Structure formats: structure tokens, C-alpha cells
């Protein structure tokens, strides 16, 4: 494409158009239209990400109107990373959903809600100002609540709690955005950051509001209680999207506001790191205690998200050292991508087993004589990534965090990825051991209650393999993540 800036609008307007189309189409047309739309949206996002990786950030003023009156779209390396993750995981989940109606809650409204989430995610990643970032994050949150509610009666309570959390987080974020506007006189990301830096404004209270608001949405311990019930009770395709993509949108916005607008707060950075470490520990312990497979995977989301928050204390302690900054950003980028694919794979695997055998109880699954080989293999490969074993992105990411910890002299942070990897291995081996060992009661084998298509059986494995392949890509992810990086916060 001669004008790559046109892709900035396409990655948002494409899924928005699909919201309208899938909202009025007859039900029988929804899967094929959804597949075609996902393919087109994914292709546009991947082309845009590739262009940013080759040529640097891309910007575009909608209708030729720049700030403060117009809407500015901008994609840098961090945007490209999240756009590509959303494109690939979104395409995989769409294929799965189109192949199994039960994965969507057997409800036609899955499709417009899913594409609303996709449009909102892409809009978050390319928004060039705080107002549109806020609006896009609202779209993601409200559509995600609707998706959870598709799980039926048992999911309505968790969906309502999710709604309350989303509204509270949005209110706090709106107050923080208002404080920034009152001081900077603009909501454009780069301009606001420059004006606040030159004014010497004490941004700590705005930073606290942002951390609490987005910590709620990202389920950072101790603000995590809403997540496991919501993810565990949602339909299979919804759980995969929520864990792999939706919670990361809040983390993305926190990174944007922290490094591009407000500027680092050293004390608050340490607090974020400690909460992240607590999330790794507490989420892992709770995952280990669960007796249902989807709940194990849901609590592991709480634990795995904790690693990402080490970015803040590690960059704060780097003192401008480019090697430490590169390791911190590169490790975080690897974990974001690896976690996205692995968690989508695990939720699709858990949903497939529950659909085929009628339960996800570990004690009941122990009666399975011959579990689905491709599904169990997908679980095993995803576990390699989450436990941080080579050659996966999980290993690359955790190793880089250890390097950044040692390089900055903050040795204590190195214990988090090392200890967390061991804990991850423990809670992920638990369901794998159940599925692979000899049935406890051969006299009462657990039969298949329904069959699963080849696409349903192999989609989790294909998603799980991606982090292994990307783990061999070397410096590609750190280079992409830091293209057009934050002022003073990147290599």
C-alpha cells in the first residue's frame, strides 16, 4: 500500500463495520462473514505492524484536521506489537468460534460484541490522544461485559461485578485525564507529556489515579477478584479473548500514560513492582488450589499479568542505561506476546475438553481413557511458554527481566521470574498430569458427550506453537517494541 497511514483508520473502521454487519445478518451467515472480516482486519493490522517495524512510526490526522480539533491516529512500535498480537490471536479465536457454536455461548450476539471488542482494542493502540484512548477503552470494557453475560445464568453475577469494576476504573481514569487536561491544556499524548515535563507539575496524584483505575481493569492484585469468576464462567471463545487480549489493553494504556504523559514516579514504580510480584505469587498459589481446569487457567492470568508490572521499577532503576532499558522493554514485550498466545490456547483447550467430556473438573477428567491428543499437546506447549522454558518467548522474556534486574543492581526483582516460573510449572503440570496418567477408575471411564471438529481440536495447538517459533526470532520483538519509544523511557 502506497499510503500506510490509511491502514490506521482501516484497523479500527474495519471491525466497526463488522459490528453493524453481523448485528443484522441472518444467523447462518455470521460464521463465514466473521471469518472473512477477521482475515481482512488481521491482514491490515499485520501490514501496518510490518511497516512500522521497517520504517518507523506512522501518523494520520483524520479528515486532515490535526489537534486540538481533529482526531490523531498514531502507531509506533508498541502499538504495532499489540496490533499484531490482537490480529493473530483474534484470527485464531474467530476460526475456533466459527467452528463451534457452543464456544460463543450459542448466541448470535457474540459476533457484533466480539468485533466491538476488536475495534476498541485497535483504537486503543492507535489513538494519539487521551480522550479517544479513554473512549476506546470504554468500548472494550462494555463489550467485554456483554460477552461474559453470554455464558448464561451462572455468568450474570460475574458479568455484573465486571461491569461495576469497569465503571469504577473508568471514573477514576476520567478524573486523571481531566487533571492532565487542566494542567497541560491538551489531550494529545506527545504534546501533553512535553507540556507537563516543562511545567514541573507534580503528577503523583494523577499517577495514583491512573494506577488504581487501570490496575482494576488489568486485575492487578489486590484488585483481581472480579477476573477469575468472569473468565471462568464465560463461553470458551470469550474467555480466550478476555485473558489473551482485553486485560492487556489496560496495561497498554498504563504504559502510555506512565512513560509518554505523566513521567515515571520512582516510589510508585516500586509499589507497582511489589504488587506485580505479589500477583505472581498469590495468583499462582490460588491456581494451584483450583479443582476445575478453567479456574486454573483463569487464576494463572492473575499470576502471569504480574510479570508485566516489573517494567516500571526496572526502567526506573535503569538510570538511563540503554542495555538495562532494552532488556526491560524486550522482556516485557516477549511476555506480552507469549502470554497472549499461550492463554488463548489454554482457554480453548479447556473449553474443548469441557465441551467434549461435559466437565472441566480435574477429578472427572482423570477418568478419561484417551484424551484428545492434539488438545493435550496444545496445553503442554502452552505450559512451556508460561513456565518460561526454552526456546519459548516465556523463557526469553523472563531471562531479559533477570538481565535487567541484575544490570540495574536490583537483584531482588530477579527472584520474581525465577520463582514464578517454578510456581507456574507446578500449577500447569497438575492438569497435564491428570490428563496423561492412567485413569483412576477404568471401570467408569468418562465418555465423549459430543465430538469436536478438526479445527476445534487443532486451533489450541497452533496458537501454542507461535511463542515457540517467535522465541527463536532473537531481537525482533525488542526492536519493534522500542521503535519510536517513549521520551527518556526506552533505549
TrEMBL record:
The chain crosses the membrane at residues 6-26, 33-52, 78-98, 110-128, 134-156, 163-184, 204-227, 239-261, 267-289, 296-315, 327-350, 371-390, 410-429, 458-477. One of its GO terms (biological process) is ATP synthesis coupled electron transport. GO terms for molecular function: NADH dehydrogenase (ubiquinone) activity. Pfam families: Proton_antipo_M (PF00361). InterPro entries: CPA3_Na-H_Antiporter_D, NADH_UbQ_OxRdtase, ND/Mrp_TM. Keywords: Cell membrane, Membrane, Transmembrane, Transmembrane helix. It comes from the Bacteria. GO terms for cellular component: plasma membrane. Its main location: membrane. Residues 127-415 form the NADH:quinone oxidoreductase/Mrp antiporter transmembrane domain. It is a multi-pass membrane protein. It is found in: Cell membrane; Membrane. Belongs to the CPA3 antiporters (TC 2.A.63) subunit D family. This is NADH:quinone oxidoreductase/Mrp antiporter transmembrane domain-containing protein. It comes from Kocuria dechangensis.
